[in-house]
Amino acid sequence: MTDYTQGDQQQPTFAYPPPPAYAPAAQPRAKRPVALVVAVAVAAALVGGGASALVQELTGGDPAPTGTGGVTGTSVSQSSKGTVAGVAQAVSPSIVEISATSASGKSTGSGVIITGDGEIVTNNHVIAGASEIKVRLSDGKTYDAEVVGTDPDKDLALIKLQGASGLKAATLGDSGKVRVGDQVVAIGSPEGLTGTVTSGIVSALDRDVTVAKDEGRQRPDPRQGWPFEFGGQEFNGDTGDSKTTYKAIQTDASLNPGNSGGALINMNGEIIGINSAMYSPSAATGSTAGSVGLGCAIPVNTVKADLDALRSGSGSGT
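The structure corresponding to this sequence follows.
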């Protein structure tokens, strides 16, 4: 998050073998190419994409239907599935920039659209104490927003756009299936640069991350990023006495001030975490303060478990 007054694993390339030459009709082995076509189609299906087209071309039949593999929301087309560019194109319309104004000044963070009428998940520290919230979509359109519920214990908040409809909602994935080494994409608004895309891998799981809860600590020096504790050490400033600790996904995808509340996404275009904290060298100031490959995200399963409470106007930690 940017607080202005406070602080591919590459997919293997597969080439289909050329269609087998058909033997003369008089030969008893004439039907073997058909079996070969079926075998090739099955093998192609295992690596994803193209199998049904191959069967249609070689046998003249209709392609077999394929499932979308997700709930209503953002999905990645088969042709671009598994690429950073494909994920970015599919999910970027669901990521927003949030500008919050409070008595302490202004802060900028990110958020994830989860319903077509404008429900947005973000970090509590992005909007804590805000008297006015403005949200800018990826197409540049701006909305006013109001806080629906907050959960400081989990550093989560739910806000709602006023008068919005027909928005592209993100698909919430399953963080329980995330593995160390999985490739991920992060989208947010670091330093107010809306829609910035970075990529990396999952570096670790279940990291204990401690952040400040009280409003007075929600606005650290913007040059130092969001203050948090990890492994018994304090990063990017004092977290204060009122703290909360949660289990986080660690990633080396570049996160910078302003990414807070944005999305950590798997290569199927599903949200697996909400980016919440980043490490910046304590001696760094100004333009030298930035990502060094140590970022943390709140697992999306934590978000899903908290949604009902947030929608009721609170959170389990309030």
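The chain has five helices and 16 strands.
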